Amino acid sequence: MYNKTSATLMLQTIMVLMDKQNSTGVTFPGSYSDDAELERCYGVYGCFSKAYPWTEHRPDNYFPVSPEAMAVRYPAFTRRNRKIPVLFEADNKEKIANANLDPRGPFYFISHGFLEGGHKLWIQNLADALLNLQGNEAATVVVVDWRGGSQPPYGQAVANIRLIGVMTAHLIHNIYETLGLQHIDNFHFIGHSLGAHLGGYCGHALQKRFYLKLGRITGLDPAAPYFTKTVTLVRLDRSDAKYVDIIHSNAMPLYFSGFGISEPIGHVDFYPNGGSTQPGCTQANSPNGGSNDLSYQQVVKYVGCNHERSYEFFTESVAPTCPFMAVQCDSYEAFVAGNCTRCDNHHYCIPMGYHSFNIYNRLQVGGLVDTNSNIALYALTGGTKPFCRVHYEVKVKVANTTASITHGPESGKLSITLIDRNNNKSEHMYLEDEQKFYKPGVLETKLVAVKDTGHPPVFVIIEWKYETNLFNPMTWRLLKSPSIYVEYIKLSSIEYNTDITVCPKRNKPVVANMPTIMKPKYCKFRK
């Protein structure tokens, strides 16, 4: 059976092979074994060093491949030309002048990562979402297609994005000059994996060479290998644009099938589901359902699911089905424990993804945030599209009545279904993945996320699932029916800022496999 351990070993093997061979047929000119050569120049794009800090935390070090060898392309799309783009070049003002771009903008630049190209479906989906957004009639989307430089070995691709970042800065400067713009505040660079750091290099070059500062850079799970624990010059950081937001979706070591950086590097860093593994990225969801016959591409898809989820989150966030809210908290563990369920000056709430800048800007204008510091936020999502969920702090009080004490402790799983004023139901959701031991009088707190029905709940359906374990006497029920005496459930909504307390009718127990309706009006029977 193909399991996570073998997937991890396969991932490491893939990375080793990618560092040892070039399977694309692209020829990289020149020899890189000459340690005496520490700098190489590329005409108007300047010179690139191989000295410190470019040697830090890197097993190898390359010069970028020449622009001619990489053949970087910049297809540009607007609402008028969605299918057939205008192809820009980094230093060709004539093509920009003839493209009939709307100077009002906004202008988006989207970059892929290692082993990819600008033709990928996710880039098309994101470009369409941005162009379809209400108010974006004048928008231009430019794809940074550097597939000629994104091929193995990985260390070479890492070096290439330094040059491509500078080339992209030249293109942005040329658009700025050709259109006679006053600033580039509405220029937004969106990069995935290595493409995120490419955006950082672009932003740095714009400041150093042209005294312009990008309005925004969004890093979608910025790559970790060769960038973790490096100085800010080497990686994307918050100084590269006026606003830098990061979505971490695969922030764990490479030997645990991780690709993304874990460090908070933006003004705002989002860690959905903890930022390391994402719901839905399991063996059951691998391309062939977990059979032994896995191709290279299937393995890459399987282990890359968490890494790719960052751009899926961001694309959905452009026109989300719910607020996509994330909450500031000390840690993910504190967040899921229900310690950060109120939006206040101690726990800022900012929507994850595209619309995050609007809220951050309000906080900044109000003097509530320091742009030199970082805000780390957490959210829960679903495992399938749409990923957006709304959050509830759920407090379950087990009754301490005579009947509950006489019945004794119970081991099982509680599930809830939320019903709103229009009788719309949320999904059936367990509060715990495994059976939990509940004592009379105990108060349990859990943070849950459910699909948004459009309104907060007005009552709840609760169910009790009980499973006997031969080796656990606490689960034995010979003379008593499997049930639990729930005194009340209190649900506090982060998104709706509402509270509701529901109780069982006449203090009756919740019997196994029998759905029980709990409503606020039943709480008058509480003793």
Automatic annotation (TrEMBL):
InterPro entries on file: AB_hydrolase_fold, Lipase, Lipase_LIPH, Lipase_N, Lipase_panc, TAG_lipase
Active site (record annotation): S193, D221, H307
A GO cellular component entry from the record: extracellular space
Binding site for Ca(2+): R235, D237, D240
GO BP, sorted A to Z: lipid catabolic process
Coiled coil: none
Location within or outside the cell: Secreted
Major subcellular location class: secreted
Superkingdom of the organism of origin: Eukaryota
GO molecular function, one term: metal ion binding
Pfam family, one: Lipase
Keywords: Calcium, Disulfide bond, Metal-binding, Secreted
Domain Lipase residue range list: 39-356
Family membership: Belongs to the AB hydrolase superfamily. Lipase family.
Protein name: Lipase domain-containing protein
Species, as recorded: Mythimna separata
